[in-house]
Batch of 2 targets.
Target 1
Amino acid sequence: MKRICLNSNDGFTLVESLLAFGISIIVISSLSIFGTLKLSLQGKYIDNSLNVAIYQLADTLVTARNISYGTTLEFEDSQGDVNQIFLDEDVLVRTPGYVIYTKNISRIEFYLQDNLIYLELEKQGKIHTFLVGSDYQNEVESDETAIIQ
C-alpha cells in the first residue's frame, strides 16, 4: 500500500511570507512619501545663489565702519578704503573691483534697525529681507553718549 504524506514541501514558510510582506510595506510607504514630498515642493524655488551672495555680503560687512544706508551701502573696510554695495542694472555689486554678488535683482534697500543692518531686495517678483550685519560702531557711540549723559 501507498503511504499518504501529510507534510508537503510546496509553498512558502511563514518567515518568507512575513519578509515579502515587510519589503512590500517599505516600498509602498517610500513611494507615498516621495509622492507627498514632490507635491509639497511643487511650485517652490530654492535660490542657493542668493543665500551664498548674502553670506558673502555679510562676511564683507564684519569689519565695516562709517556706514551709510539707502539704495547704496557705503562703508569703510578695515584698511580704510571706501566700498559701495549697490545695484548696477540688475546685478548686486561691490566696488572697488566690481565684485558681483548675485543677478536678476529688481530693487534693493539697506536700512538700520536696532543697530542691525538689513537688506531688503526684490528678486523675480518676491521680496526678501536679510540680516547682513551689525553697525557695532553706532552701538558703541550710542553707549558712550548714554554714559556721558
Target 2
Amino acid sequence: MRLVSKRRFVKMFGAGLMVASVLLTAACTGSGSKQAPEAADEAFLGGLVSGWVARWDFFADPEQELALDDPKYAEKYKDQLTQAVNLELDRLEPYIDMPFTDSELETRAINYVGLLQESADSIQFLNVDDAKHEALWTDIYDRRTIAILEFVDVYKLNIPKEHEGTVSEMRTNSELAASRAETEAALSEALCALDWQLVSGGDEYYPYFDYAATATNTSDTDFLNMWLDVAVIDENGVNKGTQYASVTNWRAGQTASFELAYLESPISSFDVSARWESNDGTFSELASVCKS
C-alpha cells in the first residue's frame, strides 16, 4: 500500500484505524512475510528452447556463411563458435543461482550449463592446437546432444517445426556417439592391458630390444587399420621415446599381435595413443587409452 493511500485512510477512519494500519504494515514488512523467490523450472525450460533455436538460426543465417578462401576464415570461424555458445549461455547461466522445484531438473540444468562452459573453454585451442580442440569439441558435442534429447523427451519440450530435422539428426548422432563410446571403452580395456613380452635382444649379440603383445578386439567394430603410438617408459620412469605398432584388418572378436622393434631400452611401463580406420572409412582416435 502506497503512503498516500495510508494518509487518506487515516483521514476517513480516524486515529484508531491508523493504529491498525500501522500494525498491519509492520506485519507485512516483517521477516516472516518475505516473498519466496520464484522457482526457475519453467523459465529455464523456456530459455533452453530459446537458446537452441537462437543457436540453430545463427548458423542457418546466410550472412554467417564463410568463404574458405577468406584470409580471415580461421579468425571469423572462432568468433562464430564463441557467439553461438554465448547465445545459450547468456540465456541460461542466470538460472543456475535460482531455486528449482524439481531437483532432477536442477541437476540437469547445472550439468548442461557446465557443458556450454566447457564448449566455451575449448574454443581457446582453435587455431592453436586444432587436434586438441577437435577432440574436445566432438566429445562435448556428443554429451550435449544426449542432454538435449533427454530434455526434449523427459520434459516434452515443443521444438519449432522448422527445427525438427535438427533434433532428428541429433538422435542419429546420439546413436553413433553411444556406439563410439562402446568401441573406445573396449579398445581402452584391451590396449591398456597389453603385456609386452621380450622377443629378442638385450644381449651382447643384439643390443636392442624387440617386443610383442597380443590384444583381442572385443568391440563390435571391424578395423581396417589400427595404429598405436607407444610411449616407452623405463624402470626409472623416464620416457624413452615413442615407438609405433600397427595391424590391418583387425576383425571384431579377433586377436592381433603388435610388435615393437629396435628399442634402446627395455619396457617397464608404457602409455598408448591409438588411431584407427574402421571398415566403413571412419577415422577416430584416443589420445591416451589408459586414462589414469
